[in-house]
Amino acid sequence: MHILHVVGARPNFMKAAPVLRALAVHVGIKQTLVHTGQHYDANMSDVFFEQLGMPRPDVNLEVGSGSHSRQTAEIMTRFEPVVLERRPDLVLVYGDVNSTVAAALVCAKLLVPVGHVEAGLRSRDRTMPEEINRLLTDQLADLLFTPSKDGDANLLREGVPAEKIHLVGNVMIDTLVRLLPAAEKRWPALQTNLDLGKVPYALVTLHRPSNVDDVENLGRIMDALYDIAVRLPVIFPVHPRTRQRLKLSSEGRVDPPLRLIEPVGYVDFLALQRHAALVITDSGGIQEETTFLSVPCLTLRENTERPITVEQGSNILVGRDLDRLRAETARILDGSSRRSRVPPLWDGKASERIAAVIADWFTARSLR
Ligand code: UD1
Ligand code: UDP
């Protein structure tokens, strides 16, 4: 059996890495890795291949940045000949980025089966580009691997046949579990490099267009972060989308301990999450990782496609209410944080379950 994986953006890498590893131990499976090139900076791409121990991509489509339509169309145009030439039995796509939906659509048109890892998540907010990508990818996929039960319920409600849906758990957590020891080993050096000492600190990431694209809006968020930084150091690895906008909005400030740094590699970021007093973010994956680590997380979004992190985990949606962000931060620093439970099947073995489902699927197909 030949399985082709498609990755393109930062959050794809930590999802694909464990699936590649789990499939590698199955006899008779050939794997091909395609990178679309949606993310291309060394600290948004190469560093993950190194740290996650991923094979180098067999093909890089080098699409780069562009508007949603241009980027999606360019990935489709460049990916189609790869599928035609390599003729995989199954293509695996990950998460909810433009690379995910573009690859799934190419496969659907060529009648090549698609598996979607991280299927069924819904924010019910169609202004979010990722929600469109999720809805479409799940309609196109033949195998849908869900991280939690709410994913199954969403898919059934949308008419996806039950036999296509496989509740396997969270592959991001597979990577976290595997690399937590490396992150702990890295921590003392990081603490020294960032001059963190033993004081509590907050960790921030922001990249959702709804938060960062409007410069005034981003300025208001930065004001709130500066207020928080008066109380404790704030470490903020800045996503390239946000870096562009910040150039326009953060001039002329005094310098409290708000530290804007370049995006960091996976192991460093995991160490920073693990030891943070709180995390402030609009990332999807970080809501899950903080839930697993039981680190308080304040999410600057009105909704989440990962409600389990609010219901069972350490996540609080503060929406666009920056006074609420200030108040919740104070509450956490004053010692009142929520109890957090690790959701079922977030156990480091989701990718093994995916590999087992794929092996069974292939056997059943061969017998047909
Ligand atoms: C993309 C995903 C988003 C995901 C995020 C993870 C879509 C629609 N969005 O958003 O779901 O949460 O990745 O990080 O697929 N840029 C660079 N260097 C890079 C990559 C991007 O400078 O290596 C800059 C470019 O100016 C680009 C901008 O960042 O225009 C945005 O990149 P893009 O991939 O379009 O979207 P993200 O905001 O990264
Ligand atoms: N991450 C990282 N370095 C950073 C910021 C994030 O390694 O500077 C990791 C983080 O631990 C998680 C993933 O990137 O595994 C989340 O990706 P991102 O926030 O870019 O995308 P989203 O999950 O919102 O789609």
Features:
binds uridine-5'-diphosphate, Rossmann fold, seven-stranded parallel β-sheet, 15 helices, binds uridine-diphosphate-N-acetylglucosamine, 368 residues, 2 domains, six-stranded parallel β-sheet, alpha/beta
Structure summarized in a few sentences:
The protein is of the alpha/beta class and 368 residues long. The protein has 2 domains: 2-169 and 346-366, Rossmann fold (3-Layer(aba) Sandwich), CATH 3.40.50; 180-333, Glycogen Phosphorylase B (Rossmann fold, 3-Layer(aba) Sandwich).
Question: What is the number of domains?
Answer: 2
Instruction: State the strand order across the main sheet.
Output: 3-2-1-4-5-6-7
CATH architecture of the largest domain: 3-Layer(aba) Sandwich
Full CATH superfamily name of the largest domain: Glycogen Phosphorylase B
Approximate shape: globular
Instruction: Give the cofactors and ligands.
Output: uridine-diphosphate-N-acetylglucosamine, uridine-5'-diphosphate
The portion of residues assigned to helices is 40-55%
* Radius of gyration from the alpha-carbon trace, in angstroms: 20 Å
- Percent strand equals 5-15%
Tell me about the biggest sheet? 7 strands, parallel
Tally the helices: 15
Kindly report how far apart the N and C termini lie. Answer: 15 Å
**What is the CATH top level name of the largest domain?**
Alpha Beta
Order of helices and strands: EHEHEHEHEHEHEHEHHEHEHEHEHEHH
Mean pLDDT: 95
- Kindly identify the CATH topology of the largest domain: Rossmann fold
Structural class: alpha/beta
* Low-pLDDT segments, ≥5 res: none
Give a count of the beta strands, DSSP E runs of length 2 or more: 13
